[in-house]
Design a protein that fits this description.
With 399 residues, the protein is of the alpha/beta class. Helices cover 35% and strands 19% of the residues. Bound molecules: pyridoxal-5'-phosphate.
């Protein structure tokens, strides 16, 4: 198959070998997106239940996102990190008010937002806890791919990739409050968890876990840090996943859906955790008006009772449909809002994903035995029905 960029360079063929080979990708090249659909360079249309890896909260090329980009692009794209801009200040105010936290720092990626959280924990431990520095995190957690975020993550095999690893992390089983409790000692400064583990395959902790962590943190004077880069901004049916248990964190990180397809992330702290000061963090693109204008458009759209109600209603339909497949093909379904997984009975997730791809459906194989579904938060009932019908026929063919 010859690849060409028909827009900028119709004569020159495209060659994958110019990219570092850090992942395996299917043959077609994606050229266009709209709502729940993505088109490749051969004109094939895909129903997209991956959505930029749970980033396109409003779907591909959402009108609100385009309007915000167009308007801002004609006004101010980049003021410089040396100056304030209106969009950054407005979005910061909105997020602070809505989360009940006190301060925010914007960056471009989730991993960078987690870097801020990790710096907060280290500095807070130095100032307030006699140099305590250890952060309790969870097995199979995913916090990003900077060296510090990798050290905080619990992905099997990651320890061996780029030694020596950043010290100061201890991994406990996700969802196990007692394990967390017994790991706390004089060196412990913070607990960092995903309210629902995303990359691990949508692992939902037992009810009361988040609230239990809040109580533990209060009891032992620790910072509670929630990585809501995947679960935040309506993905689980509330603006933040922690709202399901009214367990307020001291530190919160957001990414993915916040920019709905553009690079925007945020780290928030409450007054208790606030400790970063002059020179502690920065970044050329941090808080730039082009991205924060999009963040405002996303919040304006998602943070409405009707919108979040629809996420919960569509999520219930998706969950019920997966349960029906479970009745026939075994395994189990789990999730909340529009973040779902199908736990299969054998390690066929990648081949199911590839069969779905051939039939014009994009799903993610989060694990060898786990399919993950993260559609646009605007996905319709008929798009969900269509996804389930394709998946059913692929599962039947595989059986
Ligand atoms: C995707 C993700 C990250 C990393 O975000 P990047 O933008 O890829 O750096 C961190 N934490 C969680 C929970 C994620 O899902």
């Amino acid at each position: 198959m010859t690849l060409v960029d028909s827009v900028s360079n119709p004569k020159q063929t495209l060659d994958r070998s110019v990219l570092m080979p850090i992942t395996r990708r299917p043959e077609p090249v994606m050229v266009r997106g709209e709502g729940s659909y993505l088109w490749d360079d051969r004109g094939r249309c895909f129903l997209d239940f991956v959505q930029g890896w749970a980033t396109n909260a409003l779907g591909h090329c959402a009108p609100e996102v385009r309007a915000a980009l167009n308007a801002q692009a004609g006004q101010l794209m980049m003021a410089s990190p040396a100056y304030d801009n209106q969009r950054e200040l407005t979005l910061a105010r909105r997020l602070v008010d809505r989360s009940k936290l006190a301060h925010v720092h914007f960056s471009s990626s989730g991993a960078e937002a987690n870097e801020v959280a990790l710096k907060v924990a280290r500095k807070w431990g130095r100032i307030h806890k006699g140099g305590a520095f250890e952060i309790l995190t969870t097995h199979d957690a995913f916090h990003g791919r900077t060296l510090a975020a990798m050290a905080a993550s619990g992905k099997a095999g990651w320890d061996a990739l780029f030694p020596p690893n950043l010290p100061g992390f201890r991994k406990l089983p996700h969802g196990d409050l007692e394990a967390m409790r017994s790991a706390i000692d004089a060196r412990t400064v913070a607990i960092l968890v995903e309210p629902i583990q995303g990359e691990a395959g949508v692992v939902v902790p037992p009810p009361g876990y988040l609230r239990g962590l809040r109580e533990l943190a209060d009891e032992h004077d620790l910072l509670l840090m929630f990585d809501e880069i995947q679960t935040g901004i309506g993905r689980t049916g509330t603006l933040f996943a922690f709202e399901s248990e009214q367990a307020l964190p001291d530190v919160l990180t957001l990414g993915k859906g916040l920019g709905s397809g553009v690079p925007l992330s945020a780290a928030l702290v409450n007054a208790r955790a606030a400790c970063l000061g002059l020179g502690d963090q920065g970044g050329t693109y941090h808080g730039n008006p082009l991205m924060t204008a999009v963040g405002l458009a996303v919040l304006d759209t998602v943070d409405r009772p009707e919108f979040l109600g629809a996420v919960r209603a569509r999520g219930a339909e998706l969950g019920a449909g997966l349960d029906e497949l479970v009745r026939v093909h075994g395994g189990s379904a789990r999730g909340r809002g529009l973040l779902w997984a199908y736990q299969l009975t054998s390690p066929i997730a990648e081949s199911i994903r590839d069969r779905c791809f051939e039939r014009g459906l994009l799903v993610n194989a989060a694990r060898p035995t786990v399919l993950r579904f993260m559609p646009s938060l605007r996905v319709t009932s008929s798009e969900i029905a269509s996804m389930l019908a394709t998946l059913r026929s692929v599962l039947e063919a595989a059986a």
